[in-house]
């Protein structure tokens, strides 16, 4: 989900990230790119228009505080608007409501084949695990052959209780009896599955309404397949005229590369997406979290997860040393280079990490292929074969020293030369970071890895 949107938005956002001032002209092309990306992702036109207008109004002519650059402030504004478009800035909007005398009744409704029954099973497991609640499930779908058996099987997978109703012929009665049973047996939650409805079928709509009236659900969750696209809006409006929908469960997001519907629902209908189904397995369900999604769309999620992963793998004292190298006045030497190489080696596949960074397109493929893991190991062995003095003062490494190091490390003199060249490049890079900051360094990264090096 959101694959293309993420790719396009994170790229255009990156271009503005180090702008010193926000003016109509310098955000114009970024906003144009965002607009196109949103439309291509199948976000409804009126939502896109409102989104762009709000971002524009929020950013132009604003005085920002000094802790962020205007470019970064702009990203914060886009992030806030994305969150607002999908949910609200308030925390926990998506949380399921259970504040009622038990059992809390959840009624799941929806059109045919949206993934309702599967979702009842998933939701039962989710509530049991997340909320540690005693859950009962029941199917009132006496119309689709095997719908009841399907839920019974899912309840076994989720290890929750199933209310048997195989021989019954009245959906409303089944719901009523299940509720009575749930009350007398102290269940915390009762989840009711219903028949899939062609939403023009008034008779079936009335049936769902009758079930709802009998069991007084605290949540009426409309299950929608993400792939129905903008038709979801009509579906929500139509169902809502019969029963008050309290939230949406968007299923099959694993099959929907565009994701525009997730950005259109709240603005178009006022309804919040509470959960998403992201696979066919019983545990493939999670809360819909606008903040996390916004971070992902802006390309921040990967950066955060990569940083987290790197931090978990490298030790604190080395991070400190590396930081000191960047910010101290001391000259970068081969000791520092060795520490960096060892830490990079610990992190794992460098290609994999570069690939996950949102702006990895800025690093050309030939550069990526030249920063590989084999090379790291080679450089580490070469530096290990040097004396203390050589590591401190690499300038003294000339002909005879090079031959000795080559012999000791098992490589050729050319390899020693290319390692030293690489070291000089990194040294220049460190100097550049000190002078111009990280983002400039990334933009110019290809200059630090000239083609002929390896
Ligand atoms: N990939 C994927 N498939 C899903 C997801 N949720 C449900 N499905 C599949 O969608 C199909 C239909 O699911 P059901 O649960 O039978 O749908 P339903 O809404 O109960 O169907 P009706 O009772 O006919 O309305 C099944 O093959 C499910 O495995 C999901 O999140 N991702």
What does it look like?
Pfam families: SRP54, SRP54_N, SRP_SPB. GO terms for molecular function: 7S RNA binding; GTP binding; GTPase activity. Belongs to the GTP-binding SRP family. SRP54 subfamily. The chain is of the alpha/beta class and 454 residues long. The chain has 3 domains: 3-86, Four Helix Bundle (Hemerythrin (Met), subunit A) (Up-down Bundle), CATH 1.20.120; 92-300, 3-Layer(aba) Sandwich (Rossmann fold), CATH 3.40.50; 306-448, 434 Repressor (Amino-terminal Domain) (Orthogonal Bundle). The chain contains 22 helices and 8 strands. The chain has helices spanning 3-16, 24-40, 45-59, 70-86, 116-131, 147-158, 171-184, 202-215, 231-242, 260-269, 290-297, 300-313, 316-327, 334-347, 350-356, 365-370, 373-384, 388-392, 399-409, 413-436, 438-443, 445-448; strands at residues 104-109, 135-139, 161-162, 189-193, 219-225, 247-251, 273-277, 285-287. An 8-stranded mixed β-sheet has the order 3-2-4-1-5-6-7-8, with helices on both faces. α3 packs antiparallel against α4, α9 packs parallel to α10 and α19 crosses α20. It is elongated and about 95 Å long. The model is unreliable at 358-362 and 445-454 (pLDDT under 50).
